[in-house]
Amino acid sequence: MVKICCIGAGYVGGPTMAVIALKCPAVEVVVVDISVARINAWNSDQLPIYEPGLDDVVRQCRGKNLFFSTDVEKHVFEADIIFVSVNTPTKTSGLGAGKAADLTYWESAARMIADVSKSDKIVVEKSTVPVKTAEAIEKILTHNSKGINYQILSNPEFLAEGTAIQDLFNPDRVLIGGRKTPEGQKAVQALKAVYTQWVPEDRVITTNLWSAELTKLAANAILAKRISSINSISALCEATGANITEVAYSVGKDSRIGPKFLNASVGFGGSCFQKDILNLVYICECYGFLEAANYWKTVIKINDYQKSRFVNRVVASMFNTLSGKKIAVLGFAFKKDTGDTRETPAIDVCKGLLADKASISIYDPQVTEDQIQRDLTMNKFDWDHPIHLQPMSPTTVKKVSVTWDAYEATKGAHGICILTEWDEFKGLDYQKIYDNMQKPAFLFDGRNVVDVEKLREIGFVVYSIGKPLDTWLGVMPAVV
Ligand code: UDX
Ligand code: ADP
């Protein structure tokens, strides 16, 4: 029986290992983590992450061939294949601060593997890492090898949160990078044999190590660039009377472009896009490719611009002041169908509203009050440290309240900001919401989920990203 151990029971490690266990009954999978709370949650009925379909998969294999444990060293010692899926935060100080990946957690995992191993191991990079990390890890392992053979593989994960289980069941491709030596290729085949239990062989791509590492960064950078591209056009739509939904639809009909990932929004979030682009920028700079670095930087600049443009629109529309006003925020997660708030645009938007002295009342179906308070008080980049090392918010933000109902959040509000595209926001009783709001009642849709015409009929003043402006919104000049 092949034994797999995954170090890191997070958004990537948890679902990926659960699906491997489900699809490969002959493989024993143990997911280990230093966070006792996280492992306890994986062993309970309340999993630590919300992901549609995940409960079902875990229920089917937990206790059979899927285990969650804090006994990191024991399971690393026993494993044939070790996936490493630990945090790779952005450095906040020193060389490369604000851009380069901090490999502290990776390095400590590699040293621990070297310490406890007594048999040959295949070590798989699962979390996204900078190009050439495998080489660094290889050095740590081989300099402490005691005669053990380590093969390092890069097997980046392409799942998107909210659709992780479907993405894992039916991936566009599985990418495995390895050394071109006979031992390296043997390791590649061993990992390939795991995936081909359910993934058609022609979807498993094998490359050299550096191609696999760079592909992950490139794929995320190109996806994020599509969003920044459409978001930059959304500003023009508002100014000219064009409609971003119509433009995106027609652009996407070109088979060379395709229809996906062209939804204008208040900005992209999530743990990967910004971090991976910063990483790419840093690598370009290190090799002296400053033009390439600047090119990728603009993707983040447009994303930041889109968030501040949204805040400016809210403030300018509401007579240039939010002081003494209540703003309801519907949705805090970085996208629908997840409780994840890492780099969510809601953080910057809420901070912008608070800076203009608004009181905000937040409702998200999956995000807890504690998480929201933590996010609004945390420093940039601090989110990517294991949860037990994250600071509890020292002073909760007094002007923020969190409710468990959209109607409660919007009661008595002067304006509403929709920041996540949760399906339930489409079906709300907006007449009821309007009746309970201050007038004029404003609604700012950062995800294009509402029916603008219907809401205008009710009486709302509506702003929707990239849509022709409500005549009202022309009243106050806006720096947008
Ligand atoms: C992303 C990649 O898609 C995935 O392949 C990789 O493994 C990890 O990073 P994820 O961040 O989970 O996945 O979600 P994704 O669906 O890519 O969305 C990222 C952000 O972009 C979200 O904030 C989402 O709302 C936003 N987005 C996405 C848009 O604003 N418009 C779109 O058209 C698509
Ligand atoms: P991702 O989205 O990439 O899965 P997460 O932050 O959700 O990232 O998960 C990373 C996990 O890795 C965290 O639960 C953290 O506690 C764990 N971790 C970090 N370093 C180690 C380590 N040295 N040994 C075991 N687990 C670790």
TrEMBL record:
Residues 328-452 form the UDP-glucose/GDP-mannose dehydrogenase C-terminal domain. Coiled coil: none annotated. Its EC number is 1.1.1.22. Keywords: NAD, Oxidoreductase. Pfam families: UDPG_MGDP_dh, UDPG_MGDP_dh_C, UDPG_MGDP_dh_N. It catalyses: UDP-alpha-D-glucose + 2 NAD(+) + H2O = UDP-alpha-D-glucuronate + 2 NADH + 3 H(+). InterPro entries: 6-PGluconate_DH-like_C_sf, NAD(P)-bd_dom_sf, UDP-Glc/GDP-Man, UDP-Glc/GDP-Man_DH_C, UDP-Glc/GDP-Man_DH_C_sf, UDP-Glc/GDP-Man_DH_dimer, UDP-Glc/GDP-Man_DH_N, UDPglc_DH_euk. Pathway: Nucleotide-sugar biosynthesis; UDP-alpha-D-glucuronate biosynthesis; UDP-alpha-D-glucuronate from UDP-alpha-D-glucose: step 1/1. Belongs to the UDP-glucose/GDP-mannose dehydrogenase family. NCBIfam families: NDP-sugDHase (TIGR03026). PANTHER family: UDP-GLUCOSE 6-DEHYDROGENASE, UDP-GLUCOSE DEHYDROGENASE/UDP-MANNAC DEHYDROGENASE. Involved in the biosynthesis of UDP-glucuronic acid (UDP-GlcA), providing nucleotide sugars for cell-wall polymers. This is UDP-glucose 6-dehydrogenase. It comes from Platanthera guangdongensis. The gene is UGD4.
